[in-house]
Design brief:
This protein has one domain. It is of the alpha+beta class. The relative contact order is 0.22. The longest helix is centred in the last third of the chain and has 13 residues. Strands 1, 2, 3, 5, 6, 7 and 8 form a seven-stranded mixed beta sheet that branches. A two-stranded antiparallel ribbon has the order 4-9. Helices cover 17% and strands 18% of the residues.
């Protein structure tokens, strides 16, 4: 991906106080409703009462919305990612259960994995401001059974891009031991079409084309 697109309203003060473990193939997608800024999710109003009781939010878990190859063999450099990749996975599909953490760095005592990082002394919530319980800090997923077209915030994840880019990603990541090796089949054609981890490319979703 030649450009990093940031589709959210984050003011300078928020950037100083918050952080998210995003890759260059992930971007925010915020629905237009009552919640208009990231501040509304992270609760930056640290009142004395909140600090004393330690009930304010430290981490917001945001689900992936994963797009596959859209059955494209190669990447068209004359078009944006948003124009080319328009076929996503079903909301209940395996990869859409994965999350990323929007955190407050000053409250972090140690980094978890790239998906879940939080402080046990503070609360974790989802995008609906519901309090969550993390039973296993090593997990990478937290299924959102309410994920739908109107969910207020998702992280659109262009996980593979086209087939050619996917295979290049496989070779590059495996050689550097970034999560797997060439002995495993991740990002291979076999993996892409597998029953559990594979992609269906069966939901046409044009919500990102407005940013082309």
């Amino acid at each position: 991906m030649s450009k990093t697109f940031k589709i959210c309203h984050i003011n300078n003060e928020t950037i100083k106080k918050t952080f998210i473990f995003n890759g260059n193939d992930e971007t925010f997608r915020e629905e237009k409703n009552e919640v208009t800024t990231i501040d509304d999710y992270i609760h930056l109003d640290d009142s004395i009462k909140r600090i004393k009781e330690k009930i304010f939010m430290h981490t917001v878990l945001i689900n992936w919305l994963v797009y596959g190859t859209s059955n494209l063999q190669t990447y068209d450099k004359n078009k944006t990612v948003f124009e080319q990749f328009t076929m996503r996975e079903e909301y209940s599909r395996f990869w859409n259960t994965f999350i990323k953490s929007f955190v407050r760095p000053k409250l972090i005592e140690k980094i978890g994995n790239v998906h879940i990082t939080y402080n046990e002394n503070y609360k974790v919530c989802n995008i609906y401001n519901n309090i969550l319980t993390i039973n296993d800090p090593n997990k990478c997923d937290y299924p959102d059974i309410n994920l739908n077209d109107n969910s207020p915030l998702v992280i659109v994840h262009y996980m593979t891009l086209d087939y050619e880019s996917m295979l290049n990603k496989r070779n590059k990541n495996a050689l550097q031991c970034l999560g797997f090796t060439l002995k495993e089949n991740k990002y291979s054609l076999e993996w892409y079409k597998s029953e559990i981890y594979g992609f269906k490319d069966n939901i046409k979703d044009l919500r990102m084309k407005v940013y082309k």
